[in-house]
Known about the structure:
This protein has a single domain, classed as Alpha/Beta hydrolase fold, catalytic domain (Rossmann fold, 3-Layer(aba) Sandwich). An 8-stranded mixed beta sheet has the order 1-2-4-3-5-6-7-8, with helices on both faces. By secondary structure, the protein is of the alpha/beta class. The longest helix has 18 residues. β1 and β2 form a beta hairpin. It contains 5 helices and 8 strands; from the N terminus they run βββαβαβαββαβα. The radius of gyration is 16 Å and the shape is globular. Helices cover 32% and strands 25% of the residues.
Amino acid sequence: MTAHIVDIRAGRAYLAVPEAGEGPGLLLFPDVSDDDRDLRELAHLYAAEGYVVLCPVISALSKGVEDVAAAVAALRARSECTGKVGGLGFGLGGKLAYLAAAEGGIDCAISYYGFGIDFGLNLVSRIGCPLVLHFAEKDPQIPPEAVRRVREAFSGRAGADVTTYVYSGAAPGFDRPTKPTYDKQAAGLAHSRSIALLRRAVGPRYDLEAL
């Protein structure tokens, strides 16, 4: 795996490329509380799964949808990216992944405890790609009522490929080994579900019998 800083229209971003030197793209949106170490660890985690990961600094996305769409285009244009691009985010980054699904032209999206999604349900009709939403049961910023509104918004839309998961007893940051709220069981389950969607929607697809 190789990794370095690159420049995109919205500012600087961290790029991690898998050992194969190419792969599907994954636009990674960190949480606002994530520092540089968190950003790199996340990028390396998904690069190890076979993705060309582009992780913009979340504070640089000042123009919202416009900057998100530009980041998607920047990732697609890279020679290491084989074409399809997914989006994945945490906290406020989870909301950006949701926006990317609606406005950024990505092939799938995954949101972990995406803060504010319930206030953006007017975008539901614009989401045509597969979407997975992970919520923590003990999230003071996303109460059960907010999750219910999200579920109802998508359940009323025919043909929507959207799955919502709520992790019992978990709090935001349940997926991070470095956080005090880390929940190993919930983290493993959520990661396996995220990778399953990415494999189905953007690849890479491996010949398991050959392996």
